[in-house]
C-alpha cells in the first residue's frame, strides 16, 4: 500500500540521522579511548559493511538491508574523528587551513552526490545501488592507506603519555627536523589539562557557565535544520 511505502521511504531517509546521532554521542569517548586513527579504521569497516548491505539489497529485494545499511552509514564517526585527526597531524603553519578543509569537501561531496543522483545519470532504477556504493569505495581507499600513518602526536602524548612515540610520529609526519617547540606546546597543554574531567552531554547541559555558548550553538544548528535547506 502507498501509505506503507511512504512510511518505509521516510524510515530509510531518517534512519541515517538516527545512526548519526548515536555516532556523535559516542565519538568523544571513542576517540579519547582508542585514538582518532583506530576510530577512522573502525569507521571505514562500518561504511564498507553498510555499502555492501545497501548494494546487495536490490539483488536480494530487501528493504531491510537498505535500512540496516543506512543506519550503519550514519553511525560512522568519520566526520568528528577525521577533522580532529587531520588537524592534529598537520604542521603548525597549516593546521588552521587543514582543519577547515573537511567542511569544504563535505559540501563538495554533497554537491557531487546530488548531480550523480539525477535521473539522467545514476538516479535510475538500475543504477541507484551503484550510486550508494561510492562512499564504500572511498572508505576502502582510506582503509588501505591509513595503516601507514601514525597516530596523532597529541593523542600519543596527552592520552597515552608516550613522549618517545609522540616525537617519532612528528618526524614521520613532518619529516626530519627539530620539533621541540611543538613538543613543548603539547607539554604545556598536558600540564594545563591535567586533572581536568571530560564532561559528557548531560554534564555539559548542567554546567551553567557554558550556557551562553551552548545556546548560541543550539540556535545556529536548529536554525539550519528548520530553514528548509534539507527539504530543498
From TrEMBL:
<dbReference type="InterPro" id="IPR045263">
    <property type="entry name" value="GLUT"/>
</dbReference>
<dbReference type="GO" id="GO:0070837">
    <property type="term" value="P:dehydroascorbic acid transport"/>
</dbReference>
<dbReference type="Pfam" id="PF00083">
    <property type="entry name" value="Sugar_tr"/>
</dbReference>
<dbReference type="GO" id="GO:0046323">
    <property type="term" value="P:D-glucose import"/>
</dbReference>
<dbReference type="GO" id="GO:0005886">
    <property type="term" value="C:plasma membrane"/>
</dbReference>
<feature type="transmembrane region" description="Helical">
    <location>
        <begin position="128"/>
        <end position="149"/>
    </location>
</feature>
<dbReference type="InterPro" id="IPR020846">
    <property type="entry name" value="MFS_dom"/>
</dbReference>
<feature type="domain" description="Major facilitator superfamily (MFS) profile">
    <location>
        <begin position="1"/>
        <end position="232"/>
    </location>
</feature>
<keyword id="KW-1133">Transmembrane helix</keyword>
<dbReference type="InterPro" id="IPR005828">
    <property type="entry name" value="MFS_sugar_transport-like"/>
</dbReference>
<dbReference type="InterPro" id="IPR036259">
    <property type="entry name" value="MFS_trans_sf"/>
</dbReference>
<keyword id="KW-0812">Transmembrane</keyword>
<feature type="transmembrane region" description="Helical">
    <location>
        <begin position="6"/>
        <end position="30"/>
    </location>
</feature>
<protein>
    <submittedName>
        <fullName>GTR5 protein</fullName>
    </submittedName>
</protein>
<keyword id="KW-0472">Membrane</keyword>
<dbReference type="GO" id="GO:0055056">
    <property type="term" value="F:D-glucose transmembrane transporter activity"/>
</dbReference>
Amino acid at each position: 500500500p502507498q501509505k506503507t511505502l511512504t512510511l518505509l521511504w521516510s524510515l530509510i531517509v531518517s534512519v541515517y540521522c538516527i545512526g548519526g546521532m548515536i555516532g556523535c554521542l559516542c565519538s568523544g569517548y571513542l576517540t579519547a579511548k582508542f585514538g582518532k586513527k583506530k576510530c577512522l579504521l573502525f569507521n571505514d569497516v562500518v561504511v564498507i559493511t553498510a555499502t555492501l548491505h545497501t548494494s546487495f539489497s536490490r539483488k536480494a529485494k530487501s528493504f531491510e538491508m537498505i535500512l540496516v545499511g543506512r543506519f550503519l552509514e550514519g553511525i560512522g564517526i568519520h566526520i568528528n574523528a577525521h577533522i580532529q585527526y587531520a588537524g592534529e597531524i598537520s604542521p603548525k603553519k597549516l593546521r588552521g587551513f587543514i582543519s577547515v578543509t573537511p567542511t569544504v569537501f563535505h559540501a563538495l561531496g554533497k554537491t557531487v552526490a546530488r548531480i550523480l543522483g539525477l535521473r539522467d545519470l545514476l538516479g535510475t532504477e538500475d543504477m541507484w545501488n551503484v550510486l550508494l556504493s561510492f562512499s564504500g569505495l572511498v572508505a576502502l581507499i582510506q582503509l588501505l592507506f591509513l595503516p601507514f600513518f601514525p597516530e596523532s602526536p597529541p593523542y600519543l602524548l596527552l592520552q597515552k603519555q608516550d613522549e618517545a612515540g609522540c616525537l617519532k610520529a612528528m618526524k614521520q609526519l613532518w619529516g626530519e627536523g627539530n620539533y621541540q617547540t611543538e613538543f613543548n606546546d603539547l607539554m604545556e597543554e598536558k600540564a594545563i589539562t591535567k586533572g581536568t574531567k571530560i564532561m559528557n552531554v548531560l554534564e555539559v547541559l548542567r554546567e551553567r557557565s557554558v550556557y551562553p555558548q551552548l545556546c548560541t550553538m543550539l540556535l545556529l544548528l536548529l536554525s539550519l535544520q528548520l530553514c528548509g535547506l534539507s527539504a530543498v
